[in-house]
Every structure is written in C-alpha cells, then in structure tokens.
Amino acid sequence: MKKERESFLRNFIEAFTKGDIFTKLSILIFGTGYVARGQYVKAVILQIVQVLFFVFTFGFSLNYMSKLGTLGTIQREEIFDPKTLSKVVNDYDNSLMILLCGVIGIIFIFLYILLSLSNVKACYELQCLKKDGKHINTFSEDLKDLFNHKFHITLLTLPSIGILLIKVIPILFMICIAFTNYDGDHQPPTYLFTWVGLENFKTLFTSTSTVTFGYAFVRILLWTLIWAFFATFSTFYGGVLLAKFINDKKTKFKKLWRSLFVITIAIPQFVTLLLVGKMFSDYGIINSICNKIGLVGFLQDIGLVSKGLSFIPFLSKPGWANVMVLLINLWVGIPFQMLSATGILMNIPEDQLESAKIDGATERQIFRKITMPYVLFITGPSLVTAFIANINNFNVIYLLTNDYVTTNMSYANSNAKEVDLLITWLFTLTNDYSNYKMACVIGICVFVISASLTLLTFTRMIAGNREEEFQ
Amino acid sequence: MKKKIISVLLSGMMAVGMMAGCGNAEKDNTQTGQDQTTGDEAGSGDQGTTQASSDDAIANLIAATTDPVELTLWCSETEGYQTVMAELVEEFKAQYPDVEFNITIGAESEANCKDDVLADVESAGDLFVFPDDQLLDLVNAGALQSVEATYTYDPTATNTPATVEAASIDGKLYAYPMTASNGYFLFYNKNYLSEEDVQSWDSLLAAAQAQGKTVGMEVSGAWFMYGFFAGAGLEMRLGDDGKNICNWNAEDTKFTGASVAQAITDICKNPAMKNCVNEDAQAFALNGEMIADVNGTWATNAFVEAYGDGYAAAKLPTFTVDGEQVQMGSFAGYKFLGVNAYSKNPGWAMLLAEFLTNEESQTKIALATGEGPSNIVAASSKEIAEAPALAALSEQAEFADLQRVGDNYWAPAATLGQSLVEGNYSDVQKLLDDAVAGITQ
Questions:
Q1: What would the mean pLDDT of B402-421 be, rounded to a whole number?
Q2: I want to staple B163 with a disulfide (CB 3.0 to 4.6 A). Which of A56, A124, B177, B291 is the partner?
Q3: What is the strand order of the sheet B184-189 is part of?
Q4: Spatial CB neighbours of A414, under 8 Å, sequence gap ≥ 6
Q5: Are A222 and A275 within one domain?
Q6: Which of A374, A386, A376 is nearest to A348 (CA)?
C-alpha cells in the first residue's frame, strides 16, 4: 500500500518535470494536455468537471468550510411582527450543515487534488505516445476500452461512488460529531454546537457515582461480544444440525419440513419478535400458564425466581433476559442458517463420504471429521458477517426488551440497561435523550470493533493460497 | 466457488434482513419549500391586540397571501382525533374564503411527537399536538413559536390558570392549551368496591384481596411513582440551572424519604397489588381479574367496556406513611397545540392554532375524544364535566403538580421504582441517595 502511494507520487513528479508546457499547464487547466494531443472530447469533459468543481467549492462549500473551525457563531434569532403575522429571521449558522457540507467540501478538494495529479500523469503518457509516434486513441476508442480491457474501471465506478456517499461521508461526519458538544442542549438549527476535543472520550471512560459511562460501557461491550458469539454459533450449529436431520436419508417429507422452517423466515422478524416478546412478558400468556401449572412456585422454591415476584421475569431481569434473548434468537436465526447449510451439505463430495463409510467411520465421526470442517470452510466468511451483524443486531434486543427496567442505578445514570447491546444503547441515547455526542463516541467504538474483527478474520481466512485449496 | 458465492449471498441477505424495519416509520408529510415573506408589508399602527388592530393584522395577512397556504398538522393517530381535526380544518378554511389552503393532517402519536419533531425540525409539521412533558425539550431546542400575539381570542384568559402556567416558561406562552385531562387517577369497578374502599390503598387492597381480585398501577413507572413522594411532601422539580432538584432521600422532613419508600414497598407486597403497564392493566380489567387501576383518560374506553355498569372513577387513594394517612399526589397532564418555529407560514399556522383551541373547537374535541378541555367554559359544560373520569381528574387536580422535570429524572426514577416494587434492597437510604444523585446530576 505504502509502496503504491510512493510510486504514485514519484510518477507524478516525473511526469511533471519531464512534461512539456501543455502537460505542465494541465495541472491548472485540465483540458490543455488533451487539446495539444488532439483529444478534444476528453478535454471538454475534464474541463467541465474542473469548472463544476470550482462552482461547487466557491459557490457552495467554501462558505461552510470557512466556518468549520468554530462550527458557526451566529445563533438563530427571530422577530415576530404581530401586525402582519410574519417574522423576520436573521441569517443564522447551522452547525450541523456547516459540519456536513464542510466535510463534503474537504472530500471534494481531496478528490480534486487526486484527479489533477493523475491528470498530469495521463497527459504525460499522451505526450510520450505522441513523441514516439504511436497511435493515440480517439474518444470512441477510449469508450470501447472501458468495456474491454479497462472494464474493471467501469464496473467499480458505481460501487465506489456508492461507498463514498453512504459509508465514507457518514462515517467521517459521525467521527467529527464525537468531538463536539452536540446534545440536547445544543441542538441545531436553533442552537450552535462546537468542538470540545477529547472531552466525550474522557466521559466514556469515567466512572463516578453519577457519570457512569465507564461502568456501563465495559459491561455492555462485554455482553455485546458474548451475545454476538453465542447468537452466531448457536444459530449456525442449530442450522447445520437441522439441515443434516432434514437431509438424512431416513427422513420422510423432506420438502414439508424445509418449507415449515422457511415459513418462519417468511413472517417478518418484526412481527415474530413483538409477538414472542408479548408472550414472554411479565403478565403474558407463558407466565399465566406457568402460574397455573405451578412452575412459578417451583422456581421460587429452588431460588431461581425471587419471592417478591408473582411471575417468571423472562424478559425483565438480568440473567433471565440475557438467556431468553439468546433462546428466542434461535427461533429467528436457525432457519436462515439451515437454508445455507442445506445447499452446502448437498454438495459435499460423495466420494469422501463413501470412502469414509467403507473405512468404517460412524455417522458421528463422519459428521465431525468431514461434514463440519467442509461446512466451516465454506461458510467461514459468512460466519464473520453473521458475527458482525449480531454485534449490531438491533431488532432482537430492542423489540424484546423494550419494557425492561433496570434496578441498577449505575446503568440507569447513563441511560443503559443490562441487556443493551452497544447499538441499542446508542439508539436510546440519540432517540430518547438527544445525546448525539456520546452516541457518536459509542458508534466509533462499534465501528472499530466491527472493522478490526472483519479485517482480522477475513485476512486470516482468505489469506494466501487457502482460497484455492478447496477448489 | 459457486457454493461460496451463494453462501455469502445468503448471509448477506440475512444481515440485510436483520437491518430491515429499523428505519423510522414514514410520516405523512407534504411540506413544500415555499418561501413566503410577508414582512415587507409591515404597516404602522398601535401596539396591542385590540379587536380592530388584530382584524387589520389578519386583513394584512390575507392581502399578503397570494400562493396557496401549505400547512401540515400533526395530531394523534386515533380515529377520534383524525375525524374531529378534519372537520375543524374544513371550518377554518370556510372562515377565509379568499385564501386557498392546502392543509394536510398527519398521524403522529403524541408520545413520539418530540422525538420526531426534533429529528428534523425544518421538515416537521407546522402545527403539532404534544403532551406537556415535552414542552421543555421542545423549547430548549427552539422548535416552538412562542405565542407573542393573539388575534381571535386570548388563551391566557379563557383557559384555566394551571394550564396556561404549564404551557409557559418564564412567563412566556409557548403553545396553545388544548386539553387538561392528561393526568392520572383511579378507575374502579363499583360492583366490587364501594366509595369508602377506594379512599385509601389499605382498604382498597384489603377489599380486592378479600374478593380474590387485583388492583393495578405502574408503580415502577417514574411518572406514576412521583405521586407517592409528592403526596408525602417531598420535592422533585427542575431547578433554574437546568438540573433537577430532588430531596427524596431527605431525613429531616416530616415524612422521610425512607418511610415513603417503605410505604411503597408495603403496598407492592400485597398479593392483590399488580405493578403493570397500561396494556396489561386493560387486559386484566377485561378478563375480570383487575377491579381497580391507576390510569389516565386514554384508557377510559377500555375500562368502560371492562366494567360496564360498574364503571367508576375517583381521585387517587391515600396511603399509609409512619401510621398516618397521606393523600397521593400526581402529575397534572395537559396537551398543547404548538406552532413550529420553522413553519413557512407562521401567521396562518398561528391563526389555525387559535381556531383549533378556541372554546367551540375544544368542546368538539372533548366530545370526540373523551378528553377534558382546558377552556374554562368548555370544561364546565354539563355533558363534559359529568363524565366520571373527568370528574375524578378535577377531584385529583388540587393534589396534582405541574410537570417540570429534566431528562435526568426518568431513568434513575424508574430504576428506583423497580427496586421498591421488588423490595429486595438492603439499605433503603443508600438506594434513595443513589437515585437522587442520578436524578440531580
């Protein structure tokens, strides 16, 4: 990576120093290099891009970028005129827009610099071609090239723009907010917020009797990882086992079973979770059944349920709720894994299984030594995805534990609860308490965890030759 | 390789499936970016809101309005509200035949109003109905157009003083009072309970227990639990510095915080007592198990249906602290109609808000929704004042406090409530100290 960047710069310097006047000029006026070599259409296109950039920057984003340092100084003021029922509003600063448009403006400048550097290089290449008397592509030939041996560029353009728009800009924006005091007391457009440096990160690791973010953060992070681990592997093994049972030669009505489980996918998760949440609530149907058959009394006798409760706190006490969300997650998660596992199981090389049988391996040995390693290898990347998805599994936790009230004051003081994942905590902070700055700090933590886990596991999983091994 | 692609695709779908549905519900919101500045026409004249000058102002406004007026009104999604608002809006349009209106009524649950308005105040409804507990946050975010002048009637004179106070901050009115029945009281079934029974928690629970029935209240809800501490004379309110002031852990008051906490725990220990939320209480009432519940007017229809001819309502009962009977307090609750400070048509929005909250409209809204009006004349009309729920509310009114509470109250108070309900704390003073530290942080 570093090498590439260095050679990019070196190439540019070489191109710039060796280039003739047109090539040199093309760093200021994009089109010149192309005009000199007869590529007029390309010259016009690049010139338009350059003009558009200047119009965008000087007409729009510069205004915002210049205020980035303070994030605005003029607060909104309005004067209402009772005689005409109209009002006059001053030209106020909107910190949020300044930050957003400022970030976008900077990204565009960065892209512009990259473009101008590579533009000089491209012009220098053209200059060399012309000097050597080689053929210079016409515009239509260039276009054709984009569909032939430069097809990868055509293919990657759209996704790259998409990633920039829906990933890079929001992430940069979010990272910026983590360093401001954007919260309920500083809400744009009426009020301004400003930079506060590392203040919020300090808060995240502070534990006093009232500021308990440090206390809550460590515990919620731990629970998030525990949850992601168990939620991923329980549904994965459950799915593989289920697929194996359905695939078994002795199982009858295979299609019926498979369809039955697929139905649970067909019902929206939202509906399932809300219904199941109601069923397991303190006064829900499960509890009234348990009460009737005396299960609640029995659990109280053996000490699993405290005497003060007249119900089993399936989703309302720490411990109980943590286990229940994992169990309920099986219901919504296993069918998905079953579907993908079914496909894989059907494709296990028959010869391997046959030879194992001839060698006298038992069903269990075959499952452990051949089936599982094969499935694990194939589904490795998807398991990582599932793990990350589970770290951010908002639906299951939020819909099931919406009514959960913590009895631990240290959690309550930072608006958290024992069953929260980082993502649901973040949601409560923004949605109920407008505490955007802390939510962004937590968001960064989630991002760092997800990104590093993904990178680590993917690089190890598909590193080097391993990808080819099984093909 | 193909298999791998499929498995990656499937897991990708799974991840997408998990994300799906997280987004905000789409809102009916058809605001157009119409900029209208009528400020240039500012005429000169006397200050004040005399009849003549306000007529002039409206005439000015009509004259200055050339384009169709686009307004969005957010109100509760319930059928009662949607129909009555649609009717009233038509009447409003008929009042100004020369102006073309384009008024959209959006369905917005009142409980979420603040969150959705603050999510993007510039594209929120021009007018919205919201409960009084959201006033502070909305004002703090600068989302409300203050009522600086009125044209058709004077809300500060026609509504009850308590409502006007609730809609004002530092003496400035920020919204138009609409209903005054958003507090809580006791629903009960008079086939099982006598009027004497519902006077105190002791007799209420004893009567229920004797008949094998239950009584409900969301004791662990911070909003409801406030009634116990407030009734015993302890204090919890928002101070001038934006932090809460709370002395629930006091040891030098007539009733100490610890005694009140003990009293709450004692009530919850009674097997007839059920700590449950609104939906559960309604379900229990419907299946005949629960014969009394602390709840609000939003549940009226459910309890009328559940109790039939036994349906009755009363002020909150007294409870026992240190051997003495103490009347429970409560939060008084109101609903206001607010005008968005970022409305493109502030003048028309304010006129519409006035129209929707005048005496006549309040009566219609009360009849359609069963909620009590804040207008003094409308509230005293016979068919409204005699509804049991509203009668109980006005009985409770003298013990009810204005709700001025900072955000830091809710989570620690709910946690305190949950602990008191379960009663498995060892040191009640420490519990209260921790809660107060959290509330006042």
A1: 89
A2: B177
A3: B273-275, B214-217, B290-296, B184-189, B311-314
A4: A211, A212, A213, A215, A216, A217
A5: yes
A6: A374
CB < 8 Å to B424, chain A: 306, 308
pLDDT band at A462 (very low <50, low <70, confident <90, very high): low
Domain boundary among A156, A171, A197: A197
Residues A339, B304: Cα–Cα separation, whole Å = 50
> Between chains, do A343 and B7 touch, taking CB under 8 Å as contact?
yes
Nearest partner of B28 among B111, B144, B126, judged by Cα: B126
% pLDDT > 70, chain A: 96
Let me know if residue A174 belongs to a domain. yes
The answer to whether residues A233 and A151 belong to one domain is: no
Instruction: List the single residue in A with minimal CA-CA distance to B346.
Output: A86
Q: Do B418 and A82 touch (CB under 8 A)?
A: no
* A80, A185, A340 ranked by CB distance to B10: nearest: A340
Q: Are A422 and A398 in contact (CB under 8 A)?
A: no
> Do A343 and A410 share a domain, yes or no?
yes
Q: What is the count of residue pairs from A and B with beta carbons less than 8 Å apart?
A: 201
Same domain, A49 and A188: yes
The strand pair at B273-275 and B214-217 is best described as parallel
Taking the C-alpha atoms of residue A419 and residue A321, their distance in angstroms, rounded to an integer, is 7
Say yes or no for a CB contact (<8 Å) between A84 and B220. no
What is the predicted ipTM?
0.75
Containing B152, the helix (H) or strand (E) segment is none
The DSSP line for A387-433 is HHHHHT-HHHHHHHSTT-----HHHHTTT--TT--HHHHHHHHHHTT
Handedness of CA A176, A179, A180, A184 (dihedral sign): positive
Q: Domain for residue A121, yes or no?
A: yes
Nearest to A322 by CA among A222, A238, A215, A410: A222
What is the pLDDT at residue B403?
A: 87
Question: What's the pLDDT score for residue A361?
Answer: 84
Q: How far apart are CA A292 and CA B355, in angstroms?
A: 55
CATH code of residue A345: 1.10.3720.10
- Whether the pLDDT of residue A342 is over 50: the answer is yes
Of B173, B178, B134, nearest to B156 (Cα)? B173
One domain for residues A224 and A353: yes
What pTM did the predictor assign? 0.80
Residue among B441, B415, B422 nearest A409 (CA): B415
Residues A117 and A236 in one domain: no
Beta strands in B140-284 (DSSP E): 168-169, 172-173, 176-179, 184-189, 214-217, 236-238, 244-246, 273-275
Q: Is the pLDDT reported for residue B174 higher than 60?
A: yes
Task: Give per-residue pLDDT as tens, B47-94.
Answer: 444 556 778 888 888 888 888 999 999 999 888 899 999 999 999 999
Give the span between the Cα atoms of A19 and A375, in whole angstroms.
57
Contact B21 A191 (CB under 8 A): no
State residue A131's pLDDT score: 87
User: Do A406 and B19 lie within an 8 Å CB cutoff?
Assistant: no
CA distances from A394 to A113, A269, A331 (A): 40, 12, 16
Query: What span, in angstroms and rounded, lies between the C-alpha atoms of B163 and B373?
Result: 10
Sequence-distant (6+) residues with CB within 8 A of B301 are: B370
The residue type of A155 is: L
| Alpha carbons A176 and A173: distance in angstroms, whole number | 5
> Is there a single domain that holds both residue A176 and residue A117?
yes
A113 and A159, same structural domain?
A: yes
Which of A163, A181, A197 is the last residue before a domain boundary? A197
The number of distinct structural domains making up chain A is 2
Q: Is B12 on the interface with A (CB under 8 A)?
A: yes
Note whether residue A304 is domain-resident. Answer: no
Answer whether residue A215 is part of any domain: yes
| Domain extent for A109 | 2-80+88-197
